[in-house]
Amino acid sequence: MNIPEQLFYTKQHEWISVADDIGTIGITDHAQKELGDVVFVDLPEPGVRVQAHQAFGSVESVKAVSEVYSPVTGRILEVNSELTDGPEVLNKDPYGKGWMLKVKLADTAQLDDLLSAEEYTKYVQEESGE
Amino acid sequence: MENLKTTPLHNTHRQLGARMVDFVGWHMPVQYEGALAEHQAVRNNVGLFDVSHMGRFRIRGADALPLLQTVTCNNVAKLAQGQAQYSALLNERGTFIDDIVINRISDHDFLVCVNSSNRQKDYDWIERHRKGDVSLSDDSEEYAQIAIQGPKSQQLTTEVTGLDLSPVRFYWFTEWKVEGHQAFVARTGYTGEDGFEIYLPSNFAVPLWDKLMTLGKPLGVAPAGLAARNTLRLEMRYPLYGNDIDDTTTPWEAGLGWIVKLSKGDFIGKAVLDEQRASGVKRLLAGFELVDRGIARDHCAAYLEGRQVGTVTSGSYSPSLQKSIGLVYLPVERSQPGSLFDVDVRGKHLRARVIETPFYKRRN
Asked: N or C: which end of chain A has fewer CB within 10 A?
């Protein structure tokens, strides 16, 4: 299981990395594996406000649809438009080229509510009954 | 996952790392490596499907033909020995009990392949109408069924069985002996590619599968799960019972009029079908693509001028066409190619267009 140490995680299997008050958001390696081959990604426009715990878009595989939830509240600065034509990047590089949003955080204190890599690892293991 | 039925290949699927799901009471592989790769393996090379969960009935006796003529809508009398036929069991309302494939082994001996979800219902229905010199036996457990599908399927199936399959045309089959036991190799399938289905005694399923995997390696063989099976069949517009056809739809509405032979004599459902042919149907199953970005899924509501007129019976991403395709019952006058309507995809109304089917056309 690939769960980078320096990121924050949600129980809905999103990750966020933060530099100053700018967060980069995506889905975890576990999420992309569970979903299977991603064939479609629906993302909002830059400028839109996202709310912590609320869905901002969706990721679809051949078989299933999965909503993607924002780990934090903030305003979207940038959207990864590469995902529109090449959604398979989400499977290949979920923590790198598969990033989804860059967001200006409204309140960096919200990061305290998120899971650390260690906590997320434990959560995934419990969830999958390992 | 308790109480789920398993096929003779259950352990094989697990060893291959398949993701297993509950499929109408069966613990079946939905995918192995990935649905897209499996879909492409079937379109370009060859794929293997465990379809042992399907039901297999043997109907034998001097009155086997009259029984099948009564309970099915296609003309069984037209079947030669060694020939297979796509058909349906209909009820008195002319709607589907199931869609089936009938294989004529000899004059008085038939092997009928039915959907797993309908097995008991079909058996009871046929049994209810059985009379005279005819026996009905459910041999589903005794037999396994493996589908070998794709442009390289003939090469692989020939290598594995040692049979000359070039004389076996589409929807014909031949007998095969597995260590002295009766088996059948039919040129049938549910993918739109050239392909075969092997019916063989259950205990030979694992060795056959292993041999197919080993000899198929240089051909690019891939085990394929239910996800690929669904996208492959949908691209061909092959109906799925429970989704696209059921006991509320008739063959005329489903675009399956070609399996109805009104001139063959009486059969169950004929009166209603006669009447509906004269009066015309009100709705037709149409193939569509999404014009807007998104993927229409099973059960999405379809709207015309803001009014719900139907439901997407099957909807998926098409790996071959790389777009969202599906089937939906629409009012006849709005069911022709070019006709536009809306699909409610998780609260958003997306534009859809009726297009010609099959969605996918084979390259060779």
From this structure: C
Q: Which domain holds residue B211?
A: 10-54+141-235
Choose among B31, B20, B17, B48: nearest CA to B205. B48
Instruction: For chain B, positions 179-208, list CB contacts with chain A under 8 A.
Output: none
| Yes or no, beta carbons of B295 and A60 under 8 Å apart | yes
Q: Which residues contact B42 (CB under 8 A, 6 or more apart)?
A: B149, B150, B191, B193, B222, B224, B228, B232
pLDDT in tens, A51-97: 999 999 999 999 899 999 999 999 999 999 999 999 999 999 999 99
Cα A39 off chain centre by: 17
Q: How many domains does chain B have?
A: 3
Query: Where along chain A do its domains lie?
Result: 8-107
Nearest CA-CA partner of B193 in B148, B259, B239, B237: B148
pTM of the model: 0.95
Which tokens go with B137? 């036996």
CB spacing of B37 vs A62 below 8 angstroms:
no
Q: Any idea which fold A8-107 has?
A: OB fold (Dihydrolipoamide Acetyltransferase, E2P) (2.40.50)
CB contact under 8 A, B31 and A36: yes
pLDDT at B1 over 80: no
Q: Is B163 on the interface with A (CB under 8 A)?
A: no
Q: Are residues B196 and B325 in the same domain?
A: no
